[in-house]
Amino acid sequence: MESIFHEKQEGSLCxxxxxxxxxxxxxxxxxxxxxxxxxxxxxxxxxxxxxxxASEEYRIFMQQxxxxxxxxxxxxxxxxxxxxxxxxxxxxxxxxxxxQMLGIDPINESAFICNYKEHWFTVxxxxxxxxxxxxxxxDPELISDTYLALFLxxxxxxxxxxFVVKGDLPECEADQLLQMVLVQQFQRPRLxxxxxxxxxxxxxxxxxxxxxxxxxxxPVMMDEDEENLQKALALSxxxxxxxDEEADLRRAIQLSMQxxxxxxxxDSMSPNIPQSSETSDSLSxxxxxxxxxxxxxxxxxxxxxxxPTSAATEDTTKTLTNDxxxxxxxxxxxxxxxMSLDKVGTNSKPAEEK
Length: 354
Description:
Strand order of the largest sheet: 1-6-2-3-4-5
Active site: 14, 119, 134
Number of helices: 12
InterPro entries: Ataxin-3, Josephin, UIM_dom
Subcellular location: Nucleus
Largest sheet: 6 strands, antiparallel
Order of helices and strands: HHHHEHEEEEHEHHHHHH
GO molecular function: cysteine-type deubiquitinase activity
Oligomer: single chain
Region (Disordered): 258-326
């Protein structure tokens, strides 16, 4: 699909997109098409002037706006036809009874140009396959040979004017490449407006998820990217909580080793760790053991939940790292407990032994 030239809609320049998608390149610009339209306007003015510059018909014609272009970027079928004539291409009305009587199978044609309510788009054969190159689509749409006739019939029922492009189209990379390979399309492209609306909805959901606001919309199916984002946000919040608890635990051990007071630790402790109701000035070894046990139980549970089942090497590395951290924390805890017990023992000696 990457080799197919596909201009997407800008403003009302669908005629330009239609021509360039047909020819598979940036062959026409708005300036060039405007020049063709002005030439057509001048030719029409000269024909009307043949009846007399003072005639009522000429006066009415001069008061009317151009029928070949407007300020929005729309161009008429005459402009498109003249632009293609430069390349030796001709347009024949597919809807006409004369062409229908020829009984030509659409699959044997090379391209079609379709128009409905001033919107132009191309349906072209590239290689051995047909593609809808509508500039309003996010990507080219693959059309099977079987579906082509039904597609054109549906357009006719909806009021489209369809023109057959006759002549030899210029060579292009996509046509040469698709002569050798076949394209497979598993998901039909959406309209550009629908695609933008879907992106806006995803952004809105992500913002609500980050801010923690409840969503009161009807449940929608999230795609893989949305699910991965939600998982990443949840894991990020859990990791922050674990880091806060780890900092509190290390703070508790440090204060105990330094003989810090209970009140100093309590003031700096995270609200995620429950506080003991003991009233001793220094942290007891039992409280330290209990807090450390709570932390490591939660950490081990989180590792079991988040560890990938297929990454054996990463699991081994994480296990070694956790064992090293556990050993270091064990040493620090033992030191803290010994110092705490020594302090308790010293405080409990009789006065005459001090």
